[in-house]
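Re-running the complex after MR caught last week's input typo. The corrected sequence lines follow. Everything else is unchanged.
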Amino acid sequence: MSAQVVIFFVLALIAVFGAVSLIVQRHPIHSALSLILVMVALAGLYLLMGAEFVAAVQIIVYGGAIMVLFIFVIMLLNAGVEERTNLSRLAFYAGIPLAVAVTALIAAAIVGSKAATALPAAAPDTLTSTRTLSMLLFTEFVYPFELTSFLILVAILGAIVLAQREN
Amino acid sequence: MNEFLTHWAFLIVPIVKIAILVFIVLTVDAYLTWIERKVIAHIQARWGPHRVGPHGLLQPLADGVKFVFKEDPMPANADKVAYFLAPFITLMLAMTSLAVIPFGPQRFTVFGYETHVGIADVNISLLVLFAITALAVYGVALAGWASNNKYSLLGGLRSSAQMISYELALTLSVVGVLLIAGDFSLRNIVDQQAGSGKGLWSWNIFPQIIGFVCFFIAAIAETNRVPFDLPEAESELTAGFHTEYASMKFAMFFIAEYTNMITASCLATIMFFGGWLSPFPDSWTFAHYLPSVLMIPFGLWVIFDGVKYENLFGRLLLPGVGTVIAAIGAALIVFPVANDAIQGIFWFLAKVFTFLFVYIWMRGTLPRFRYDQLMSFGWKFLLPVSIANVVLTSAVILWRMH
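Corrected-run output:
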């Protein structure tokens, strides 16, 4: 096994462990911490594929900004340990077959595809470098890019309006 | 044996470099506390530490021993996992951020493995650094929350809010430098500042003076230092987020804070002050003797001061240290190869220590901000100014292109 494959499996295991722990943990802060673990492991996987800019942005945006907000809110609300209720019937009879079906679908897709035999090849350097990425964003994909910024601006304005309604 | 080394050099060389860097950084951290206490003491007309060893020079050692042997109680009903994780996260991230900083210009080959002064040469090193700083909030926030103490929680919340607010200004303030350099690699940013060998006139500090002021203020806030040390404002919050931490866990927060100071100083040096470049023009070759010119008189002064020290231990130790310093200075004159090799590192360290001194100087000078002042300063002044700097820099670059 090459070093890359070893690193891939280590990161994948960490990501899966974090995802499972996210659901199993009973305290919201522990769940949030597990989610951060998943985010960081995903960034490592991006790095392994040679998408270094995406990896850094993944940590900065998801790990640094969004999850900090989650933790912040949980701490401010002083949320306690969640209470376990009995599984609802619907979740039991519909959820488990659905989960099995989704797992089977993903497994079939992985087994069926040719890429499953090898690691995803690192994208060519010309595509992943930050310079090329920004060139593409500001030329070919400028309208989707600007539209997304506009959407975010609207969301920010909406948040401010909602927060100020009380006064 | 040699074959083994050549085969595994890609693994062994970085590990050895990491071990050396960790040792150096921990020593510098320890003596930074000594320098800080001494400088602030002299600002306030006191003596500072002077009992353990001559001039208190062994004080950091005594502090270290004390930290190791102190009792380490855990508060009742604390969240065990988060309580343990918090200092580790903080220290780990502080140390990791040093890994992408290049300390000198040289590239050399060990056992057929090409390497350089620094741990990792990543071509997006600045982004990696910001990614690591972005995660640093968790250590402080978790420490405050997990301690089950209202002062800790308030300190943790304050700190997270402060770090989130100033991170924006910190990131935006360096965009000007990135626009000029057109590169995320710290090494390339320094190389680009070399210009045409005219010395300090091609450094980024002149076109980016606004960016530097924003960067330095935001960096102080990010490292939780005076005048932005509200997370540990002792008159309001006892000790803020680390109130409930004792022994080595407290020491880990402490080491992390000083390591963050070193990282911020290194970054300011690299981004705005030309990193390892000499401020003198290339043609001034006699400036290469500056390290010796500084070290020999300093060594002689330490000897002169040491021989009349009040106890025998000091009368032996200080002249010994002075002799070593003066001897290194003299050796650098005798061996020009060694002298040329240390030029880059000498300037880098000189600049970094100047910044560290400014940090300490400010702690001895400035009073603490009030919390609402801190927030309105960050959001209503620092952030708009950094954005204006980005717009201005882009406009100038665009104007020059046409």
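None of the earlier attempt is carried over here. Chain A touches chain B at residues 27, 29-30, 33, 36, 40, 43, 52-53, 56-57, 59-60, 63-65, 68, 71-72, 75-76, 130-131 (CB under 8 Å). Residues 83 and 126 of chain A are 51 Å apart (CA to CA).
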